[in-house]
Amino acid sequence: MHAINYEAPSTLDQAVSILKAHGENARPFCGGTDIIIQLRAGVRRTEHLVDIKKIKELRNLSFDAKKGLRLGAAVPCIEIHENEMMHRMYPGLTEAAHLIGSLQIQNRASVGGNLCNGSPAADTTPALIALGAKARIVGGKGEREVPVETFVLSPGRTVLGPGELLVEILIPAPSPHSGDAYLRFIPRNEMDIAVVGVGVAVTLDGEKVKSARIGLAAVAATPLLASKAAESLAGKKLDAKVLEEAGRLASEITSPIDDMRGTAEYRRHITGVLTRRALAIAAERAKKN
Amino acid sequence: MAEATTNGKYKVIGTRPIRHDGADKVTGRAKYGADYTFPGMLHGKVLRSPHAHAIIKSINFDKALKLPGVKAIVTSKDLPSVANKLEQAGEMAINPHHLSMNILAHDRVLYDGHAIAAVAAINGHIAEEAVRLIEVEYEVLPPVMTVDVAMKPGATILHKDLRNQEDGDKQTNVAQHYQFKRGDVAAGFKAADYVVEREFKTAMVHQGYIEPHNAVGIYSSDGTATIYCSTQGAFEVRSFSAQVLGMPVGKIRVVPAEIGGGFGGKTTVYLEPLSVLLSKKTGAPVKLVMSRAEVLRASGPTSGSQIKVKMGATKDGKLVAAEIWMAYEAGAFPGSPVGAGAMCIITPYKVENFLIDAYDVVVNRPKTAAYRAPGATNAAFASETVIDELAEKCGIDPIDFRIKNGVKEGDAQTVGPPFKRIGFIQTCEAIKNSPHYKSKLTGKNRGRGVASGFWFNAGMNSSATVNIHADGTASVVTGSPDIGGSRASMAMITAEVLGLSANDVRPVTADTDSIGHTDVTGGSRVTFATGMAVYEAAQDAVKQMIERASKVWEKKPDEVEFRDGKFFAKGNGVPPMSIKDLAPRFSRTGGPITGRASVNGRGVGPGFATTCVDVEVDPETGKVQILRCTIAQDAGKAIHPSYVEGQMQGGTAQGLGWGLNEEYFYDEKGILRNVGLLDYRMPTCLDLPMIETCVVEEANPGHPLGVRGVGEVSIVPPPAALANAIYRAVGVRMLETPMSPPKVLKAVLKHGGSAQHSAAAD
């Protein structure tokens, strides 16, 4: 591996100015669980790594009943898993964060990093999409907020321009009678990358669905928001037929590939299965909230 | 620590002392090949082919050589020309020309990852950058990835000079055709009431040892070389390296380091000759360590295969005929284990009429190496699935079917000679009587499957010395690298003979100059053959000490007896003497005591195993969850039962991984896509239950302690047992490994959607 400069600024301003100074030649660096592997394998090349873990604002994890959740880009997954509030308010996202790699990896890896890596198979991204999360970005021409479902442009590429940095992820507070869930399919029981990942959030009105959102991973070049499938649920009771139809509509928007993790045909099938199963779990949770 | 032995005959054998190498391993002090470092040492990296099949038109390393810190670059031009024919190298026959071409590609690359050049630099990063700067011009050829494509008339040819015994002077990718037959197959099938004929495919899989290959080579100005490496066979590394480098064997010393797993994959050389070559060119020690991607791309996995099995049985469940066609991927050079597979495929059963045709086929994949019972697992996946189907047709419990047809002492092996005492039926009975098989499996989509396996086991050459220390303790020195707890067993055998405790014997694995020739740790042979040498060396030490005791007592040797670690003089009331009492007198009675033995291990006892597995299949995803697994295996005599059980569990775990998710995944260009353990899916601890073991002890009459090899046969039954369990869970016969979720789902959907079956054990 070639030599790389490493810097660890303690303020957001410093980080942005370093990133701006080096433009394309710098990458933010958090847990390093993706970028170090990519650098070593030679699939990415960069001259400067800017460690963002020492910036206080990026380590913030706080919840406000009105404003919702602020999840700093450098909060390690393990802190989410160890936070009782997260289990209560966002169990689906919490499960997704706890599925990444192993415990050791979760000590380093962050949800923000998972998003910025730009993988279509990221576990937490569909969970964020389901929750209607927004990414707050600084640097570039100023501050902006981007819905998570539009954050990834293609495998490994995101909306972040040179000098831009993801500061935090903003998630609305769940409405009453809401629940979320994330399911991924892997051939083994751990240490794997999603063949398909499905995140859902459901808000109920009595027995019927008031609204829902469905996020999909590993079934297209980017994570997807399955709007049609989600909208098909509105005003309906989640019986087998309704679930089946939502699953079908979700798999309809996928454009998966054949690779060592599964065939396109298999991924489409599993999208339907997981959508049904995740919706059922989320609805059960919503009934209790 | 040591429990009382369950076998009254022995005091140490059959107990479970803590392994001698344990403390250093758990504290991180144990020294593996990659841990070695020497003053002035350089680091090497290998340039590997990005193509599966191509002619090398030119190699230009001017730029790489100019990079500051780069000391030397070698290509095949630095290797001597060697014989293109099979030559003896220890007990194994190798083709030095093929080996040389695998170490560094000569004029063409034959697989993705094939080594082309090696760089030595002052650190690994510079060496890596230098590798990137080497310019190679290729003429890319079509890749030949599977045996059916390779065997087609007009197929692209890998080796222009390859011929087989049947096709005359025709160019071919078939390196060898083996045939085994007995009786009259047509008449056999005529007598059959049921005939099952199936075609199977198994994917190429890797041993998955955690420690990558490594080597440090030091070439001295006197023309000798020393190699430090993690290997299963220091003497093989010596002879193979000598062949490739054109050096006399006596000029090379190989020091075996601790080894982080081998399973057959560390019985050949990759980096070792390169380390010496680079050291010779630079005058400095050179270390090379593979990355995981290099291990997967360019070490030696085991063959993928295509197998057709047709078997017939009478209504009452007697096997009467078998016709088998099998072709194994050898990789880029001849030498798949298809011959062994053919000699194992129906060996557990008495079949009077059979015809087995087996083909060794070269393809554009890495040259295969040994993997735990090489060839037998592929074979058993096919035959044991067909046996299961025949048992079902006959309406006989699959275990009873095996007991009815299973081989016993006196029955003929596939290769002809009759079996001596064996324990196959006993492994079937052990499963039949196990709490697992007796339990009722309930729940939807669950099923129970059984399968059996056979493996020859090996004997070969081993040497041992037993040194008695001044304090009456001992060391036992062998040439067998310890990959499965064998040092503990060697110490225990020594302790048993000398009447010491296992802790009083220190086991050592020596380098090639410090112990007599000892063949590879492989073929489940160490506890058998090296154990035999150790047993005899300890006896030799006892014999010498009896003479010394007789000198001390001024008696004749035959008037002194040795039992329970003490010397007794016959007759008068002289108090007995322990080894501890005698040891200080060695010097005055003739010098130190060293017991020695070298053996050629005859009397090998073959191994059998039977495995039972319960699964639950998710009919919507095709995912198979293993609920419970039990293996019964004949160990002959378990020296250290924990390590026998460990071998049984380890082989089972690998067999289950092979069955479920492991596979080499090549794209259409012949490039390996899953070059890491993320996508080369071995089972993790969450994927397997605790594997239950039944150790059968049917003593091997060919060994003084009754030992038979236990290292390999456990891997043979699991893929077939899984296939049989899946069938009983969801009603589909899986004919292909890995039985990964997409394949199982496809079969389930074809079979009629998410048909739910109730669990049935029979």
Give a description of the structure:
- The complex is a heterodimer of chains A (289) and B (762).
- By secondary structure, chain A is an alpha+beta fold.
- Chain A folds into two domains: 154 residues, Uridine Diphospho-n-acetylenolpyruvylglucosamine Reductase, domain 3 (2-Layer Sandwich), CATH 3.30.465; 111 residues, CO dehydrogenase flavoprotein, C-terminal domain (Enolase-like, domain 1, 2-Layer Sandwich).
- Helices cover 35% and strands 25% of the residues of chain A.
- In chain A, a hairpin with a 3-residue loop joins strand 4 and strand 5.
- The longest helix of chain A is centred in the C-terminal third of the chain and has 25 residues.
- The mean pLDDT of chain A is 96.
- Chain B is 28% helix and 24% strand.
- In chain B, helix 15 links the parallel strand 20 and strand 21.
- The N terminus and C terminus of chain B are likely disordered.
- Among the domains of chain B are: 190 residues, Aldehyde Oxidoreductase, domain 4 (2-Layer Sandwich), CATH 3.30.365; 142 residues, Aldehyde Oxidoreductase, domain 4, CATH 3.30.365.10.
- Chain B contains 21 helices and 28 strands.
- In chain B, the strands form seven sheets. Chain B has a seven-stranded mixed β-sheet with strand order 3-7-1-14-11-12-13. In chain B, strands 9-17-16-15-10 form a five-stranded mixed β-sheet, sandwiched between helices.
- The two termini of chain B are 43 Å apart.
- Chains A and B meet through helix 11 of A and helix 4 and helix 21 of B.
